Amino acid sequence: MKYCLFFSLLFLLCGPAAASDGSDSSDASDLSNSSDPLRVVQLVEGEPVRRLRPDALPSLLEEASQRTRFRFSPDPVFIRDFADPALRSSPFCYVNFADRNNWELSPEEVEALRSYLENGGFLFIDAGINAEFLQADAALGQRHSFAAWEVTPVIAEQFRRVFPDRAFKPLPRDHPFFQGFYRGLPDPEPLPEAIRDYVVEEKWPEGSYSTMGLHTESGRLAVMAMPILSMGWGRDQFGRWTTRISFRVREDAEGLDERLASARYTGERFEVTREDGRTDVIYCQPPTMPAWVREPDGTYRVFRYYHGEAINEYAHLFYTRLGINLLTYVLVEG
To answer: Edge to edge, what strands does the sheet with 247-251 contain?
Structure first.
């Protein structure tokens, strides 16, 4: 039985959840007690107890069970590679890029993934988008969420073996994924006034996020990759967030173009593809801290980092909403 048929049956059983207007107050109906909760598959190359962000995915699954009409088990089915037959036990497979050291797929994995994806399976690669300055150490991609619009080169290379005629492409802002259970951004009013407009208009416009997708030959979205998203999901046993998130904001000032055009920097210089396909040139200071940027029109802006409880809470709320959109998109649109 193909997974798309599984989706249809599950959707009929659960019923569609009403999309939120962004107020984070969704009526989620419980499924009947006779319905078994859905388990997702998670790939971890080593021992599952040593996986990165162990609280993240279970926390998201519990949150989705509370806020939507779908019921998820917080305990994933773990596999060590894509050739594991257990991959086919769920329509959704999650992998954190850093939980696999060697991304060269075996011939068996290539065949298994192609079959899984062609038959309705869905793969989400967390931290599958890493800007160049983060690629030297996979752990860096667990702490930085940099909005590059290219998948990590090894991901692009290996998935050309799975679908030789297909390539990862950016998801547009009006894609159903961004317009699903939650639409747009949470209410930005709690954010500091100094960064509110930037967050709404530039950082996450219309509630979008740098996302690359791979479609099968039938046109179905089957693989998604993002910068690290799970850093915004995890809660501890007391319900507290397990990470602290800050905002990186671009700011300009009078005379910046003249000063930064000749400024010295002690870190790396790298290029990042923007959503529109143009290129930003980023200048870093150690350790791997973007300091300023030359934008495609020649304008320079500096990066400033904002911290605080309101920012931390807002980021966690937005990342969790994106995660719930992901799960419901797979089950409803898949």
So the answer is: 247-251, 300-306, 289-294, 279-285, 269-273
Rounding to the nearest 10 degrees, give the CA dihedral for residues 88, 89, 94, 99.
-80
- Give me the domain span that covers residue 78: 3-241+310-333
* Model confidence at 26: pLDDT above 70: no
Can you tell me whether residue 102 is helix, strand or coil?
coil
- At 304-327, the pLDDT tens digits run 999 999 999 999 999 999 999 999
Residues 168 and 254 in one domain: no
Domain shared by 197 and 329, yes or no: yes
Catalogue the E-assigned strands of the chain: 41-43, 77-79, 92-96, 122-126, 169-170, 212-215, 221-226, 247-251, 269-273, 279-285, 289-294, 300-306
| Domain at 212, CATH number | 3.40.50.12140
pTM for the whole thing?
0.89
